[in-house]
Amino acid sequence: MAHKSKNKKQHTSSLDSDTQRSGVDSKQKIGNKQYVAELFKLQVELVKLQDWVKATNARIVIVFEGRDAAGKGGMIKRIVERVSPRIFRVVALPSPTERQKTQLHAQRYVEQLPAGGEVVIFDRSWYNRAGVEYVMGFCTAEDYREFLRDCPAFEAFLVNQGIILLKYWLEVSEKVQHKRFLARISDPSKRWKLSPMDLESHRRWYDYSRARDEMLAATDTRAAPWYVVPSDDKKRARLNCIAHVLSSIPHEEVPYTPPKLPPRQKAKGYVEPKQEHRTIPQLW
């Protein structure tokens, strides 16, 4: 098993409660104008990172975990908003099939790992075994213990193979999660985000708290440390996390030579045919 991260003691000492973890403090919220400007700067840097990944055949895995309504989806959306989906690939696997349930636990996740020149972002990952599967009884206690024992070795193997692995836990407070769940109930555009599992996770807050604590304690290693992202303030969480991703990957800006647009070809007698086609209604 890999050695524990030197920073772990420092992490745990500053995270004495769910409220402290989630970043509830006296800081003023970031104004939308400032947020949009700062986010754009970071997204430009993500494009530069993309160029470096493509040029060097780097392989990067970014894992996002956290309670329901912690903000994982919104975080990932801002990361991939201005980059190529052929390089930045998001993986959000559904529940395993009956066949997959008989495979090695990590098998269906290994299939999604990046080839050279790819960044794979896991919206939940193999850590389902330490979270929802364990809390909801979808795996045995032995399966759970084996996962906590073997996961550090699995991740050390990925890192030793040259994969850059970043793991983020988005921490939302009990109060803010409750507020976001209520918003999902009342907002027709968000109802799809509230599943029966989400409702159960709301009820079993402390079961998930204990599972989180055990998971972080067992899998925060020198080779693959966890980074906690306080996420009660979504805008601040996104800016801080994207900045951390960029600073954690030792990339360089690839020189860019602006291309010169070639002139249009000559029409050479081409005339637009007089055909009628169906056009969508122009409502705006």
Question: What topology emerges from the helices and strands here?
Answer:
Layout: H1 8-13, H2 18-22, H3 32-56, E1 59-66, H4 72-80, E2 88-91, H5 107-110, E3 118-123, H6 132-135, H7 141-160, E4 164-171, H8 174-186, H9 196-203, H10 205-219, E5 226-230, H11 234-248
Parallel strand pairs: 1-3, 1-4, 2-3, 4-5
Determine the CATH topology: Rossmann fold
Shape: globular
Helix content: 40-55%
Radius of gyration: 22 Å
Number of strand segments? 5
The strands making up the biggest β-sheet line up spatially as 2-3-1-4-5
Beta-strand level of the residues, as a percent range?
Answer: 5-15%
CATH architecture field: 3-Layer(aba) Sandwich
Tally of individual helices: 11
Main structural class: alpha/beta
CATH class: Alpha Beta
How far apart, in Å, are the first and last alpha carbons? Answer: 60 Å
Largest sheet: 5 strands, parallel
Write a brief caption for the model:
This protein has 284 residues and is an alpha/beta fold. It has one domain: Rossmann fold (3-Layer(aba) Sandwich), CATH 3.40.50. The chain has helices at 8-13, 18-22, 32-56, 72-80, 107-110, 132-135, 141-160, 174-186, 196-203, 205-219, 234-248; strands spanning 59-66, 88-91, 118-123, 164-171, 226-230.
